[in-house]
């Protein structure tokens, strides 16, 4: 039977030898059968969570002219402020306002690959208006980066891989002869206005159906609104409501690819709040990997072969549910235009933020639009009997 709710896991259990086996069993279930989970006791002080929420909400109250000083269109990094309804997912307009941040990097040199443009300093709001904003989110991203890498080692253990199986994709000795400092964690602070604020005829798409791109993401639901929904194997939409003291963890397509389909990346969407309910606030953190990683390595070398008995467990899940009905197909694969994760990420950003693409990447945008036109002619739901490979939507959103 397909899932009808999202499991809640207690990360503190992973630190106790007496409870760690049970934690890993529950994690394996979430990875293979759901692709989403709530995680509590992650090791971040409650006061920091509260400060992140306060500062995040306060950003949207600063004057419009201050937001536009750090607008995403100002730079090729896709970092900065996006106006309401400036992003596209699944061919539809996402009705949200947001700022994109990341773990910071110096500006790339003249000989760096084009996708290194994504690695850059953040565009921060003025400290004269939000004096604690930069410090708060720098600390939060650093802490979340450590938590995400630690949690990835638990994911490896849950499917009987070595704890360090994914470490080659994090900062350290790099691909292609480069010292790997191209790992970039991302964070968004998002405001979803209610449909009454949006006006008639705008619909209720906060974010359209999609799968996350990389390994894992960690969502802090910053208000008590429902809206996040996860698609189960029968194609039904299951609510993922806010639960105090938790982060919502989503498995990305990169993890599904690296684990040969064992860990499932699940389609999800966000519905705008109903009229009169006020805005929903959301602060997702996206674990990054090296942009230099090549699809050839990811699919043919990767983390090594997952054991056959683990793959068999996933096959049984599919058989038990009669396959997998999915609105969004699996897109993480070699053989496309992009040869590296960095190239693929850049194309996805151009696809989502076409206003930025028009200014900084017109050639890529032209190619993306041609792709989208071709996909629109053959789009249809997919039933998965084995891990699916096709075309669809991979973005960063919650």
UniProtKB/TrEMBL annotation:
<dbReference type="InterPro" id="IPR005123">
    <property type="entry name" value="Oxoglu/Fe-dep_dioxygenase_dom"/>
</dbReference>
<protein>
    <recommendedName>
        <fullName>Fe2OG dioxygenase domain-containing protein</fullName>
    </recommendedName>
</protein>
<dbReference type="Pfam" id="PF03171">
    <property type="entry name" value="2OG-FeII_Oxy"/>
</dbReference>
<comment type="similarity">
    <text>Belongs to the iron/ascorbate-dependent oxidoreductase family.</text>
</comment>
<dbReference type="InterPro" id="IPR027443">
    <property type="entry name" value="IPNS-like_sf"/>
</dbReference>
<feature type="domain" description="Fe2OG dioxygenase">
    <location>
        <begin position="183"/>
        <end position="289"/>
    </location>
</feature>
<keyword id="KW-0479">Metal-binding</keyword>
<keyword id="KW-0560">Oxidoreductase</keyword>
<keyword id="KW-0408">Iron</keyword>
<dbReference type="InterPro" id="IPR026992">
    <property type="entry name" value="DIOX_N"/>
</dbReference>
<dbReference type="Pfam" id="PF14226">
    <property type="entry name" value="DIOX_N"/>
</dbReference>
<dbReference type="InterPro" id="IPR044861">
    <property type="entry name" value="IPNS-like_FE2OG_OXY"/>
</dbReference>
């Amino acid at each position: 039977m397909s899932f009808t709710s999202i499991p809640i896991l207690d990360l503190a259990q992973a630190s106790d030898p007496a409870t760690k086996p049970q934690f890993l069993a529950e994690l394996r279930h979430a990875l293979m059968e759901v692709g989403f989970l709530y995680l509590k006791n992650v090791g971040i002080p409650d006061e920091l969570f509260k400060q992140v929420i306060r500062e995040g909400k306060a950003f949207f109250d600063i004057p419009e002219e201050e937001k536009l000083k750090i607008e995403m269109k100002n730079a090729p990094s896709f970092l900065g402020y996006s106006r309401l309804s400036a992003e596209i997912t699944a061919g539809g307009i996402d009705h949200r306002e947001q700022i994109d941040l990341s773990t910071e990097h110096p500006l790339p040199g003249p000989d760096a690959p084009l996708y290194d443009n994504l690695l850059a300093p953040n565009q921060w709001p003025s400290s004269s208006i939000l004096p604690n904003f930069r410090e708060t989110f720098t600390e939060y991203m650093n802490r979340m980066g450590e938590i995400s890498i630690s949690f990835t080692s638990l994911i490896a253990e849950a499917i009987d891989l070595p704890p360090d199986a994914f470490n080659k994709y994090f900062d350290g000795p790099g691909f292609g002869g480069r010292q790997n400092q191209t790992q970039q964690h991302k964070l968004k602070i998002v405001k979803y206005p209610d449909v009454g604020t949006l006006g008639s005829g705008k619909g209720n798409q906060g974010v359209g159906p999609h799968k996350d791109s990389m390994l894992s993401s960690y969502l802090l639901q910053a208000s008590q609104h429902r809206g996040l929904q996860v698609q189960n194997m029968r194609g039904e939409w299951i609510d993922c409501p806010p639960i105090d003291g938790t982060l919502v963890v989503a498995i990305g397509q990169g993890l599904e690819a690296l684990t040969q389909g064992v860990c499932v990346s699940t389609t999800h969407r966000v519905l705008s709040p109903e009229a009169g309910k006020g805005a929903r606030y959301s602060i997702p953190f996206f674990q990054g990997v090296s942009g230099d990683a090549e699809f050839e390595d990811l699919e043919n070398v990767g983390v090594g072969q997952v054991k056959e008995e683990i793959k068999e467990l996933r096959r049984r899940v599919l058989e038990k549910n009669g396959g997998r009905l999915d609105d969004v197909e699996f897109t993480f694969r070699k053989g496309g235009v992009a040869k590296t994760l960095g190239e693929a990420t850049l194309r996805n950003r151009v696809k989502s933020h076409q206003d930025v693409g028009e200014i900084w990447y017109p050639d890529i945008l032209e190619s993306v639009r041609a792709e989208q036109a071709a996909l629109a002619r053959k789009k249809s739901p997919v039933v998965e009997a084995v891990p699916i490979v096709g075309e669809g939507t991979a973005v960063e959103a919650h």
